[in-house]
Amino acid sequence: CYKCGEYKKIREVIVANGRLLKHPNPLSVVGHNYYRYDYICKDCIKYFKKCNACPGLHRNEDIIKSKITGKNYCKNCFFREFMLCDSCGKEERKNVGLSYQGRFFCEPCFNQIFTRCQRCDIVAVKERCRIHNGRVLCNACYRRFSTIKSYNYIPNRYKQNKLAWDNDLYLGIELEVETVDKVKKNYEDWAKKTMNFLKRKKLSKYFFIKHDGTIDGFELVSHPLTLQYIHKNIHFNQILKWFRDNKFTSYQSGRCGLHTHLDRKFFNGSELTKLRLFYSTNRKWIEKFSKRGMVKEYCHSEKLNPNHFIKNGLKYKQEGKYWAIRMAPHGKRTVELRSFRGTLSYPRFIATLQFSDALAHFVKDVGVVMLTKEKSWNYFIEWCRRTHTYPHFVKYVTNRYELLQAEI
Ligand SMILES: [Zn+2]
Ligand SMILES: [Zn+2]
Ligand SMILES: [Zn+2]
Ligand SMILES: [Zn+2]
Fold first, then answer.
1. Neighbour count for residue 227 (Cβ, 10 Å)
2. What is the 47 CA–ligand 2 centroid distance (Å)?
3. Mean pLDDT for the chain?
4. Residue 38 C-alpha to ligand 1 middle, in angstroms?
5. What residue segments make up the domains of the chain, in order of their start?
6. Ligand 4 mean position to 139 CA, how many Å?
7. CA dihedral 10, 13, 16, 21 (to 10 degrees)
8. Range in 86-95, 250-259, 262-271, 326-335 with the lowest mean pLDDT
9. Which of 31, 32, 34, 26 is nearest to 10 (CA)?
10. Residue 15 pLDDT > 60
């Protein structure tokens, strides 16, 4: 017997090769192994059932009883004709059910989970669709047509802009802003208006706009620019003024940040270490200048042990991502300074860009030991003063009144 393996009298062997045998062939039982395993004795027949659609017996665990026809089917035959909804488990005839990427759904579940893109008509998961100008669009269409790109959007090509005689430090700027009518959540409209304004000023090619789920607005992101190029061509004072005139905010809610990205290629390993050390030693001052306590969830400051740093250098790896200075944001080739609270006020905005540029150059000019000392902050400001390159920063950071001002 195939099931119990015992030798039975041929009379008791009732099934062979899945078929009932009236006159079992004695040779099959005795002589040939192959046939022997196809026989099942009377006692074991309870472990097997017939399929309604194909000949032969199947083990009970391979049989599915259809709720629609009430009949038994082997797995193969069952799934040729029926399907089980991937979401609710309901049985459905295959020609009635709907499929999405090899998964089957009953109609109600399908309509609940999926929708059609109103532009390209593709079936898409509802949750991942976005509304654009009142139309439901799939992710791909949305990405193509919306002004607000997804939070992880990266342009096909970064356009780097610098002046002919300029140094090679590119800055990327991310300014998070919130719109006045938060209830309507019509961020896309405002993003369009922003881009139209930038177009009129011939500045749109330097920027794109990204989604940010943590704020009631969006993020204005620049292509890589050098500080001097910004001073000469970008007119951030006009951009911030336009935001203010249109009742945007960045400082007020405390949610928005102003992040600067420094091109990592600009630094060697020990200079990267020095950047972090500067942030660690001077976190008190940087917090003051940033106008945002760095204790918040999304922006911790590292408390580094300088000796450990000096000994181990770069091997002192940065874990996690919510640091005031991030060494590898989203795998980008930049160092991100993310301690600054957002602002639409030009003095601190431009001071922040100058601070970022200054710090990048400063670490090339200063020793590690100096960066472990309290006085390194004042030394840094003195250094900035001497270069005559960062007047906005020096003026801002040495002005007690400015440092205490609330902003827009
Ligand atoms: Zn048996
Ligand atoms: Zn079957
Ligand atoms: Zn279902
Ligand atoms: Zn589409």
1. 24
2. 16
3. 84
4. 11
5. 10-76, 85-145, 171-404
6. 7
7. 80
8. 326-335
9. 26
10. no
Architecture of the CATH domain 85-145 = Ribbon (2.10)
pLDDT digits (tens, 9 = 90+) for 106-146: 999 999 999 999 999 999 999 889 887 778 999 888 878 88
CA distance 10 to 195: 88
Angle at 236 between CA 353 and CA 347, to 5 degrees: 60
Provide DSSP, 232-255: III-HHHHHHHHHHTT-BSSTTS-
Ligand nearest to the CA of 5: 1
132 Cα: distance to centroid of ligand 4 (angstroms): 11
Residues 158 and 222: beta-carbon distance below 8 Å: no
* pLDDT tens per residue, range 389-406: 999 999 999 998 888 888
What percent of the chain has pLDDT above 70? Answer: 84
**Closest ligand (CA of 77):** 2
Can you tell me the distance from the alpha carbon of 288 to that of 403, in angstroms, rounded to the nearest whole number? 7
**ipTM for this prediction:** 0.78
The alpha carbon of 110 and the centre of ligand 1 are apart by a number of angstroms equal to: 46
Q: Which two tokens stand for residue 318?
A: 């940065």
Q: Which residues of 380-392 are buried (b: 16+ CB within 10 A; e: fewer)?
A: bbebbeeeebbeb
